[in-house]
Amino acid sequence: MQALQVDTQQSCRRKYTKGVNDMIIIAVDDEPIVLGVLAESILEAAPGCTVHRFDHTREAYRAIKDGLRPDVAFLDIEMSGMTGLELAKNIRELSCR
User: Fold this and answer.
1) pTM of the model
2) What number of CA atoms fall less than 13 Å from residue 14's CA on the CB side?
3) Tens of pLDDT along 64-73?
C-alpha cells in the first residue's frame, strides 16, 4: 500500500472562522449502513452542520470539482475506483485553487 504524501511546502491553508454547527462535511462510504450511521452521528453531534453523503468517491470528486468545499471529510479508505486516500489528495488539490 502506498502512503499519502503531503507536500508541506505546497500546502494551502484557509483561515477557519466557522463554528462547528456551520461546517460543511462530506461522508463517503460504499456501505449504505455505515454511511447512514456516520451521517446521523455527525448530525447528532453538530445539528446545524451540513452533511453531504456520497456512496462513491467519483460522485464526491465531481461535487468538489463543481464547487463543493467541505470543511471536514470522512472517507472510506478502501473503495473501488478511486480510494479514499486518492480522494483526499484530490480534495486538497482542488481546494487550493
Assistant:
1) 0.78
2) 12
3) 999 998 999 9
